[in-house]
Amino acid sequence: MARLPGTAGYGEDAEALTRQYEEVAFEEIHGDLLPWLPSTPGRVVDIGAGSGRDAAALAARGYEVVAVEPTAELRRIGQRLHPDAAIVWVDDALPFLAGLCGPFDLVLLSAVWMHLDELERVDAMRRVAELTTPAGCVAISLRHGPPPAGRRMFAVSAAETVALAEQFGLFAVHRGEGPDRLSRANVHWSKLVFRMQGRTVAKGKQ
Ligand SMILES: C[S@@+](CC[C@H](N)C(=O)[O-])C[C@H]1O[C@@H](n2cnc3c(N)ncnc32)[C@H](O)[C@@H]1O
Q1: d(CA 30, CA 34)
Q2: Ligand 1 centre and the CA of 34: distance in Å?
Q3: Which atom of ligand 1 is the closest one to the Cα of 116?
């Protein structure tokens, strides 16, 4: 796939970024999501999967995982680091994910959404909703703070994302805020979990 504006800087820095991403466990980064994980077996898609840290953790938990990653260098590293048969790597990109076959019980967008501009976010949310099963979950983490040099990022708020998701039938069941687990100065995160209307019960709270 041709280089997309949102992937600027990732290919060149892929090895160093991988070391950073793999330093922290899925459970530490995505603790908010744990109560909302679908029951297994199930299908998960990790969009903008990077080095595959989350895809690998989800495969280890028993899901069939599609890891979508448009940056070839990161995709290759992910395949090498996490050669799990339960992970299928795909070269595709938001907003349209034209080659992706759903539906999925969990759609994960970890640190990706802020790479999309306002119009792309509308198309992307429509596609994410289409790809989610009626009882499925969508998890989005939003990075707030100055972008690193050479990357394309937009300021995206949790409130705006919640309002956009509602237009496509996805309702926030969890909203959290947290510090940067990689200790980067001036960076913090919003953690959002959505479900289709009417499905609001987390695991262990049934
Ligand atoms: C900050 S990294 C996050 C990687 C991984 N999800 C994580 O949490 O460690 C952002 C990732 O989004 C990917 N990306 C950028 N634009 C994208 C798009 N339009 N569609 C899908 N992925 C995209 C980049 O290639 C990169 O792997």
Answers
A1: 7
A2: 21
A3: 19
